[in-house]
Amino acid sequence: MASNPIRRTASIVRNTNETKIQLALSLDGGPLDLLPPTAEFANHNPQSEDSKPVPPEYQDTKTHASQISNLQHIWIWTGIGFLDHMLHAWAKHAGWSLRIRCRGDLAIDDHHTTEDTFLALGTAFTTALGSRTGLARFGYAYAPLDEALSRAVLDISSRPFFVGDFGFQGPMMGQLNTQMIHHGLGSWAQNAGVTLHVDVLKGENDHHRAESAFKALAVACRGACERVVGREGEVVSTKGVL
Question: 31, 117, 145, 201: least CB-packed within 10 angstroms?
Fold first, then answer.
């Protein structure tokens, strides 16, 4: 009986003058340790001076983007609810375990928080992936959400490139500028080292359009990252290198 393959995991800390991010990722699901306390993040939920709770960036609080099971640990808090919702859907349907917390300069806008979160996730993805050998390499999926339908096509190519067509009707979804979905996924593709195409093919509701896109991306990621039995150690490229 062959032993279970080693889980592909990564932990990232990304601190700038604009954002402070902690992130842990397992491409193969399973348990993840709590993010460790740092100067930027405590692991308790203190009260602010006016006795109102601070945002639940603390892991002893169940958030709107939290789902813990034997198969997956997902816990996300960026301070932007709709972004958390999309990252939750991505992790869930990709089969990942993912913990993220971010303190960003939201007093300015959502740009730096969104961009840096996707950059950190891209770095974690390529770090966890490792040598890029023995993989399916290509993944694609369609995903519907009611009237919306999206397609995602992914190549773990080490050639960063992103093309997206979302067709959003409004400027905002919650506190997230719709432009930032395109920019965020482009940032992820850059640091993840992948070629990614995401197209929303139809849909009337912007929330449905976005969520179907992230679900299609998730399933495409799951397929592309699959380890192919019998292909261990093989570079899936005519160049002999990825």
Answer: 31
Give the 3-state secondary structure of the chain.
Answer: CCCCCCCCEEEEEEECCCEEEEEEEECCCECCCCCCCCCCCCCCCCECCCCCECCCCCCCCCCCCEEECCCEEEEEECCCHHHHHHHHHHHHHHCCEEEEEEEECCCCCCHHHHHHHHHHHHHHHHHHHCCCCCECCEEEEEEEECCEEEEEEEECCCCCEEEEECCCCCCEECCEECHHHHHHHHHHHHHHCCEEEEEEEECCCHHHHHHHHHHHHHHHHHHHCCECCCCCCCCCCCCCCC
The residue type of 129 is L
Q: Going residue by residue through the chain (242 aa), what tens digit of pLDDT does each one get? A: 345 789 999 999 999 999 999 999 999 999 999 998 888 886 645 444 444 444 545 675 577 899 999 999 999 999 999 999 999 999 999 999 999 999 999 999 999 999 999 999 999 999 999 999 999 999 999 999 999 999 999 999 999 999 999 999 999 999 999 999 999 999 999 999 999 999 999 999 999 999 999 999 999 999 999 999 998 889 888 888 88
Tokens of 12: 């990232």
Q: Identify the CA nearest to 86 among candidates 117, 56, 112.
A: 117
Instruction: Kindly report the number of other CB atoms within 10 A of residue 234's CB atom.
Output: 11
124 in Cβ contact with 25 (< 8 Å):
yes
Give yes or no for a contact between 203 and 147, defined as CB atoms under 8 angstroms apart. Answer: yes
Q: Which two tokens stand for residue 116?
A: 């840096």
- Model-wide pTM > 0.85: yes
Q: How many Å separate Cα 168 from the centre of its chain?
A: 20
